[in-house]
């Protein structure tokens, strides 16, 4: 399992980074649409495993509209698509559901799944619109922190972080992830081109931002674990050997990307120039 996990990462990471740095924005948007689309499909599977309805076709149309709004930089389209999710999906459930007990659960779960995956994917596309450095920073923090949590937790983990939600996660792994995120954030801020500020200031800002993003990533991972546990499944899917499904791999990014985009919107001086 460990070797399969590492081999999958060794193959996919260079391909993703190559497209991120040297590929066009539309190519990156297509990659995100495919990856997040697979994650949304898996999320619909969790919804259906709970006995609820998931109008997949309509959900994917609205999901695509959200990503299109991010790609085009159109706030009206983004807001309209998000509003349509809250109106169209419950209406579709109403028209399709024969049993009253599934109405609320189906409407809430399907609407949330569409917005959850759509907002995360849209933020990753919007970050690439700011500059590939912002996405690389996010990916580096999440990947480095996830790896540190895995290896530190495996070697040193004793105290359970959230035993009910995710029994294998430990406080030792959590702190390993925060330290790795801060250290990697400082290094990335120094080596990435067009990062504003003096080296010392850039490193400090990168470390702080890396630590914050690591905390958000942990929360995102735990939140997705609650979804799976409530549906009594171990993995959201089996698309990635050794890693589970796309939703399992993207959970931290889906949570952290809107936060990073919000920070860079509120503090534009942190954006690469």
Report on the architecture of this protein.
The chain has one domain (2-270). The radius of gyration is 19 Å and the shape is globular. Strands 1-2 form a two-stranded antiparallel sheet. Helix content is 78%, strand content 3%. Helix 2 (25-49) runs antiparallel to helix 3 and helix 6 (132-156) packs antiparallel against helix 7 (171-191). It is mainly α and 273 residues long.
Q: Key features?
A:
273 residues; mainly alpha; two-stranded antiparallel ribbon; globular
In short:
With about 270 residues, this protein is an all-alpha fold. Helices cover about 80% and strands about 5% of the residues.
Write the layout of secondary structure elements.
Elements: H1 2-22, H2 25-49, H3 56-72, H4 75-96, H5 103-130, H6 132-156, E1 160-162, E2 166-170, H7 171-191, H8 199-230, H9 246-266
Antiparallel strand pairs: 1-2
Number of helices: 9
The end-to-end distance, rounded to whole angstroms, is: 42 Å
| Arrangement of strands in the largest sheet | 1-2
* SSE order, one letter for each helix or strand: HHHHHHEEHHH
Outline type: globular
Structural class: mainly alpha
What's the alpha carbon Rg, rounded to whole Å?
19 Å
| Integer tally of domains | 1
**Major pleated sheet:** 2 strands, antiparallel
Strand content: under 5%
Number of strands: 2
Sequence stretches where pLDDT stays below 50 over 5 or more residues: none
**What share of the residues lie within helices?**
over 70%
Average residue-wise pLDDT: 87
